[in-house]
Give the backbone structure.
Amino acid sequence: MSTESTQPEFTDRQRAVLDKALELLVEGGEKALTTAAIARAAGCSKESLYKWFGDRDGLLAAIVTRQASKVIPGADPSANMSKQSLRAALEEFARNLLETISGDVSLALNRLAIGQASKADTGLGAILQKSGRARIGAQTTALLEAGCKQGHLHCEDPQDAYSTLYGLVVRDQHLRMLLGSDAKASPKDLNLTAKTAVEQFMKLYGADTTR
Amino acid sequence: MSTESTQPEFTDRQRAVLDKALELLVEGGEKALTTAAIARAAGCSKESLYKWFGDRDGLLAAIVTRQASKVIPGADPSANMSKQSLRAALEEFARNLLETISGDVSLALNRLAIGQASKADTGLGAILQKSGRARIGAQTTALLEAGCKQGHLHCEDPQDAYSTLYGLVVRDQHLRMLLGSDAKASPKDLNLTAKTAVEQFMKLYGADTTR
DNA sequence: GATTTTCTGTACCGTACGGTACGGTTCTGT
DNA sequence: ACAGAACCGTACCGTACGGTACAGAAAATC
């Protein structure tokens, strides 16, 4: 409740352990994420792990939560902007989104959360989703709303518009990568995808200020 | 190699076992899918399981492959059709797609494949993806191509168009459901989503024959 | 410097699972 | 009727993992 670090968070040491654990997760999947392996990799004892995080599920939750807390500010919310700069911001968002979801960490965390989705609700999915939204969604939605109020966009519901933009950008790429099929798309393709997605989005939601 | 049943497929009995196994998977996730549990549920012995499917991974692959083989014909490829009927076909596709990916079996299989994605490539992801495409993607792409050749659509690359349509329809719903967040959307919403998605798609790719 | 707390390293326990072995039973073909 | 195969049920083995216990080192507190 104080000015900063309102949540009890974790010790530096503990955060380091979580990072090591994440590293393991990224390169070996969940099956590689045994308590023994974590302890060995992080140079701590299993007993400490249990003392700090309760049990394995708590540890997983801690890993996810920690990553979720690393939020990148992203684009500035709103000045009055030109249609051009709005478009640029959206393209930036698209690039960021594509880059993020194709990152090793993102893929590993999503795989983890999806794997836990069936068993007793540890809420990993919820955490990931909230953080995902917080990471980029909310700000971009705000951006869309701003663009709408300034007449660049014709939007009924910013949430819907954001959702559409998301679909146009990501398509089925995320699932494909989660399934492990594709090598990472080159940044060239990534840029192109972002551009065309925004192009299409503007065609759908852009107010015809030019005409 | 003979006239029929070109793929070795499986015995009726074995298929029944696979179905039971799938049932277990759907209601309990992968952790519930132990060889003992399958044997018990299907009323067969573990030894038979190993005789028929090799090992656990082979069994998982068999489960996925079996479901993949259940392809629904879907819409007829092409007569000459009106723009109206094309639109209707696309909406039908959208509804089917949404219904499919929000189905319990689809979710369970995708979770399974994603879970296996990190470990040694058993290729579940590839199978699922190919079957997914085969199930609806290819036909719809053909439909789009037909619509394009008949001048209802302005398309550069049918593959791209399909991809866009997919994105507009699914947005981030699939991932959200895989993460286990949402209750199933009502068929009302589903229908609406399909309609607006196709609406948007036509706005992007529809040739302005009306004008 | 002594005492107390926290930590590491290792050993240990119980359990669960993948995979195999085997005796008994049902089915099949002749 | 009989032989052989396929199969069921169960028991079994080895291993791996989650979680705990414990002894000694390190750090911290006084």
Notes: Chain B touches chain A at residues 28-31, 108, 110-111, 113-115, 117-119, 121, 124-126, 128-129, 163-164, 166-172, 174-176, 178-181, 200, 203-204 (CB under 8 Å).
